[in-house]
Design a protein that fits this description.
Blueprint (H helix, E strand, L loop, with lengths): L1 H7 L15 E4 L2 E4 L7 E6 L2 E6 L5 H12 L8 H13 L3 H9 L7 H15 L6 H21 L4 H15 L3 H22 L4 H15 L3 H10 L8 H14 L5 H13 L3 H13 L5 H17 L1
Antiparallel strand pairs: 1-2, 3-4
Length: 308
């Protein structure tokens, strides 16, 4: 159902720019570590994708900080900002297991910044290759509990609202059709709140656009099933989806190949062929750094063949 599909577009994408991190930026599934000192591109293969990481002159200090955390019995000796910077560094390097173990030490923290990152790390652990189904489910629900706690601690944290929406969609896979459709309303509410708190977050805008697109293209027979379960099932339009995809592109141009693809598909659904062709071409020509970029390229090529 659409309630599940809306997050699947990002299920192998690490969606979020590290909120509050210094010197880090995430674009789509390609992570860049920016520094004013120097930047060396290194390709790291991590199961599903290749990540380009620029290592700064002082990058090894990050690893030393991590080892201090692991070896020290008194974790709280490190300042909050130092731990968060280290967590974001490990995230940028796709060091999923190390990041999870680092943040797990803060599972009882009252800091939302630790908790939503731990929720994200739990989810990333669940998607590691060869993860058993039972353990994957446990990690999904574990992550959801962490992000719920993050919102309890700070309801004005944009990243917590975004990851609440994502994690809720994930656990919806285990709740059946009724649960997934019911969660769709809650997912939208939290995405809207995330955008209200951080209007410059392109990924939240993209996901909300995908939510709208998924329900706009819902087949009539699925709408009928949804109407049986809910008197007012979730609805949207292609025009609404387009607004969010456009806004995402406006705040962070060319940030994500899938956003270009969805712009093209949305224009086609609205019978605006020329604009659809334009964005499908841009999606096709987007540098394929990750597996998802390659999948986007393939879909764009196939759609263009049908149109030309």
């Amino acid at each position: 159902m659409a309630g599940t599909v809306l997050i699947r577009c990002m299920s192998r994408t690490l969606l979020s720019t590290a909120h509050g991190a210094k010197g880090f930026r995430t674009r789509g599934t390609t992570r860049f570590y920016w520094t004013t000192f120097r930047r060396t591109a290194i390709a790291l293969t991590s199961g599903r994708a290749v990540f380009l990481v620029g290592l700064p002159t002082l990058s090894f200090l990050g690893y030393e900080a991590y080892h201090r955390v692991q070896s020290s019995a008194v974790v709280h000796a490190l300042e909050k900002e130092e731990v968060l910077e280290q967590a974001d560094y490990l995230y940028s390097c796709a060091e999923t297991e190390k990041l999870y173990q680092l943040l797990l030490q803060y599972k009882d923290s009252d800091e939302a910044e630790f908790l939503w990152r731990l929720a994200r790390a739990s989810r990333d652990m669940a998607f590691l290759p060869d993860m058993e189904d039972k353990q994957k489910k446990e990690l999904m629900f574990e992550g959801f509990e962490y992000v719920k706690k993050a919102l309890e601690k700070d309801e004005k944290c944009s990243a917590a609202h975004k990851w609440y929406a994502i994690c809720l969609s994930d656990v919806g896979d285990y709740l059946g059709v009724k649960g997934k459709i019911g969660n769709a309303y809650i997912i939208r509410d939290h995405l809207e709140k995330a955008i209200e708190l951080n209007p410059k977050d392109a990924t939240s805008l993209h996901i909300l656009g995908y939510w709208c697109f998924a329900f706009a293209e819902l087949p009539w027979y699925q709408r009928k099933v949804a109407a049986v379960i809910f008197s007012s099932p979730p609805v949207s339009t292609y025009e609404e989806a387009l607004q969010f995809f456009q806004k995402a592109e406006e705040v962070d141009p060319n940030f994500y190949s899938k956003n270009l693809l969805m712009l093209g598909k949305t224009y086609l659904s609205m019978k605006e062929k020329e604009k659809g062709l334009l964005f499908l071409t841009r999606a096709k020509e987007y540098p394929a750094h990750t597996l998802e970029d390659k999948e986007v390229h393939k879909e764009a090529v196939e759609l263009l063949k049908k149109l030309v």
